[in-house]
Amino acid sequence: MHITKSGQEPEVDAILHRGKIHAFSSNPMLYKDMSRRVIQTLQHFSPEVEQYSIDEAFLGLHGFTKADLGDYGQKIRTTVKQWTGIPVSVGIAKTKTLAKLAAQVAKRYPNLNGVLDLESLADPDAVLASLDVGEVWGVGKNLKAKLNSMGIKTVL
Predict the structure, then answer these.
(1) Distance (Å, rounded) from C-alpha 44 to C-alpha 78?
(2) Which residues are catalytically annotated?
């Protein structure tokens, strides 16, 4: 192994100098604190908050039948941004898997303003048909290949 002045192996130095990699400092204590603040904010919107990871949570919206859930999602998104400075996307659906997919779609299309209520769409199947099966939570490269070989190419 050869180490350069920067403390990196020569190959790493070369990649860094070509601008192919961006290095960011890690501050796990800050990330944990920000995650805690986001979860506390979300608790103002539902008594049922399940933190899935440091940057992901599910809210139970059972009993919110009279509320426009898309508008409620916008309120959640706006409040999280105001109170924590963190932009979030909101996906609303009947299952956690579909909610994750809806949040992914909400990020991609600026016209959705970061929120997609899958259940409010006239044709939710059209959205599911536009998504690659590999985008489903838990479907990795090998499972995607197996599903593709069986003719399953989209989420629908």
Answers:
(1) 13
(2) 56
